[in-house]
Amino acid sequence: MTNNNQEQPENAPRVVKVGPPSDADNFDELVSDIRQFVTFIAGNEVFAVDMAPVQEIIRVPDVVRVPLAPPTLDGLANLRGKVLPIISLRRIFGFDEQEHDDATRALVIDIGQPLGFVVDKVSSVVGVEPGKIEGVGSIKGTVNTELLSGIIKDIGGHDMIMVLDFAKLVAREFAEIAAVAKSSSMAGGLYTSSESEEEESSDELQLVSFDVAGQEYAITIDDVQEIVQVPENIVHVPHSESHVLGLMTLRNRLLPLVSLRRMFSLPPQDADEHSRIVVVSLGSASVGIVMDSVNEVLRVAKSDVDAMPGLFAREGELNDISEICRLDGGKRLVSIISSRNLFSHSAIKEALTTVDNLQDEKIREDVAEEEESNDDDEQVVVFRLDKEEFGVPIESVQEIVRVPEELTHVPKAPPFVEGVINLRGAVLPVIDLRRRLGLPSVERSDRQRVMVFLIEGMRTGFIVDSVAEVLKIHKSAIESSPNLSSEQGKLLSRMANLEKQKRIVQLIVPAHLVEDRERAELAKMEAKALS
After folding, report:
1. Would you call 102 helix, strand, or coil by DSSP?
2. I want to staple 462 with a disulfide (CB 3.0 to 4.6 A). Which of 166, 267, 433, 477 is the partner?
């Protein structure tokens, strides 16, 4: 326990010679029999754990909460690049909750998988002769004796210390850990379009919509590489036009940034927490376009899309808007931006030229290597529930829409269903993902969205607090989640551990959001709603 990132207990481990040995051999035998224990306090009780499985003692780190996990789990922490479950010993023993203070610590214990156990205080490390360890029959009622392996008396200033058997504790609290180890089955949960789906989608456009100066625009999703947050640092290019904001680094390559507001001669506005960069590509070129906010993913029938009227079409280098999409019976108009026309705009050309002039041959080679290694990335849509981030494969997301002011409630609908909405003539069951994951409910807000997944041939919508971004994650950053329960093990079996960004994104398998029995109930409800 000499790592710089860990803390030494107040008293370093030592062996004390109790009496004069008869000879050196007897002394060596006495020393070898002495066992080392870490003693600690939880809920006014004094416990001990054998020194062998204790990896280190740390301050309690910030955690990411995990839905569907046992209530004794505080959450997951990032400990030097490794995911560490943090477990409350107070909760395990039914003690009253207590705020963490300067004395609170986490014991990192490895019994097959490192786990952090929160204790009120670490007391010391003591050496104990085997003869001073007694059975647990002498105590009753204080703590469940099934979790104890013995009692130490009159050691370290304590009349009695209970030796906690962490292997039994984990087996009882997380009994399903061993049974849930099929993280490789994630690949089977991804949705692949059937031929009929592809035929259906050929009559539709899938668009990413966004706002600029109160006007709604959209770009075909095929032309959108990803959506990222505006970075804190943007490298400004001297003598460039006003609509070229500068350059940012995106996975070791330079990405030029332009402002759509400035391109369209709209009033300037500083980026805020809602602003997003839509990375648009055409061939081998990519450019980041700064938007006020990104709204949703739309699936729009081609019959609802009209070409820009010739009388209003912009001429020359400003003919970026090629079509108009009519939604909500014509009350909502969305201007569709042509990526091809956009890349012919002088602002985009200048931004791309700037990058070409700045990048040397080595950077070009790095970019080419990254383009070739795209198979090493997974693209996910990141959304939030409370403060936690979750992700789903982008190919599993059918569309993302606003939550309507009112959901239609169907009599005798399953309790997990909030209601239904009419999505272009089809009945869409809507489930509150907070309730599905056992999280507290919140009031409806403008930031909430309905994410639509196709699960076993049935479209189902899930309400999330907000949709944050589309993110490319290198497979090296994706690892198996600690298996904490059977339901969590299926639904949240992987996570992206983005250490440099200090983020943990829990990856959801949409196929497991609805169980077989629930799908049957949804089918009955949908049929009733259509009748």
Report:
1. coil
2. 433
Q: Whole-angstrom Cα distance, residue 61 to residue 154?
A: 33
What is the rounded CA–CA span in Å between residue 487 and residue 325? 41
Alpha-carbon span 251 to 451, nearest angstrom: 27
Q: Give 202-234 pLDDT, tens digit per residue.
A: 688 888 888 888 888 989 888 888 888 888 878
CB 58 within 8 A of CB 6: yes
Q: CA-CA distance, 140 to 144, in Å (whole number)? A: 8
Give the list of residues 6+ apart from residue 157 with CB closer than 8 angstroms, or none. Answer: none
Residue with tokens 């004390």: 16
Strand 45-50 with 158-164, pairing: parallel
Domain 202-372 classification at class level: mainly beta
Starting at the edge strand found earlier in the chain, the sheet holding 276-282 runs: 244-249, 254-259, 285-291, 276-282, 224-229, 466-474, 377-385, 388-393, 503-507, 494-498, 478-480
Instruction: Provide the strand spans (E) within 172-284.
Output: 204-212, 215-220, 224-229, 244-249, 254-259, 276-282
Question: Which CATH superfamily is 377-530 part of?
Answer: CheA-289, Domain 4 (2.40.50.180)
Assess contact for 218 and 209: CB atoms under 8 A: yes
> Using one digit for the tens of pLDDT, what is the confidence trace for 401-438?
888 888 888 777 777 788 888 887 788 889 999 988 88
Residue by residue, DSSP assigns 132-188 as GEE-STT--SSS-GGGEEEEEEEETTEEEEEEE-HHHHHHHHTTTTTT---GGGGGG
Nearest to 164 by CA among 186, 195, 142, 192: 142
pTM surpassing 0.90? no
Amino acid code (one letter) for 457: G
Give residues with Cβ within 8 angstroms of 318, minimum separation 6.
345
The matching CATH number, chosen from 2.40.50.100, 2.40.50.180, 3.30.1380.10, 1.20.1510.10, for 24-175 is: 2.40.50.180
